[in-house]
């Protein structure tokens, strides 16, 4: 039984909160994480498990995506989709925080969280494609390629970030070398990468009452996200190359190869 007050739970969670990734988008740091903390404290006091919170997150998110795909566009729909997606996003932040309050997460919970995230990333942009085809007066059907391309870019970006973490973790476990962040975060950088933030993407659905305005903003965010992915991919590839170099220079047990590829089957477990 939880004996502390709700505010005490919020304060305890804030003190135990893991630090945001260097240069994380501003919405995630300033809005979503604090909102997730409030939800996490409530969920903890209600006795919900992290997986239950993930299920709540998925429910809000996929209801919003379904409404976007099947209903005619309007200001009311836009506000509803934004709220459903935003609440789902806050709950997505809350599940990990609930796990910390309960003493730690699980591999199964992490797997579930990532699978739900990957599904929402794909289906959200496909829902935009369906809605644009059914409701938007675009001057050329070629514009429908924007949500198709956004689906690809968002999927690759999510996978690349997950893969970066996994390869670095495998490298650290194999060679006993902890890979430190290459840069520290700053408010300036957080604002610069704001166009890549899922929270901002949720917010622009408010403009569904003016479909062309929405689609212009959506296209600009796609361009910014694609540009970020292109630039980040160069850096990430160099980071992985530096891990290869570090592995070669690290003394390995006789009969092994320090430069062996680290992305074997063990890296996914």
UniProtKB/TrEMBL annotation:
Which Pfam families did the record assign? CDP-OH_P_transf
| Gene3D superfamilies cross-referenced by the UniProt entry | 1.20.120.1760
- List, in alphabetical order, the Gene Ontology terms for molecular function in this entry: phosphotransferase activity, for other substituted phosphate groups
Coiled-coil residue windows: none
Q: Which residues cross the membrane?
A: 73-91, 142-163, 198-231
Biological process according to GO: phospholipid biosynthetic process
Q: Which InterPro entries match?
A: CDP-OH_P_trans, CDP-OH_PTrfase_TM_dom, CDP_ALCOHOL_P_TRANSF_CS
A GO cellular component annotation here is: membrane
Q: Which UniProt keywords apply?
A: Membrane, Transferase, Transmembrane, Transmembrane helix
Source superkingdom: Bacteria
Q: Which family does it belong to?
A: Belongs to the CDP-alcohol phosphatidyltransferase class-I family.
Identify this protein by name.
CDP-alcohol phosphatidyltransferase family protein
Which organism is this entry from? Galbitalea soli
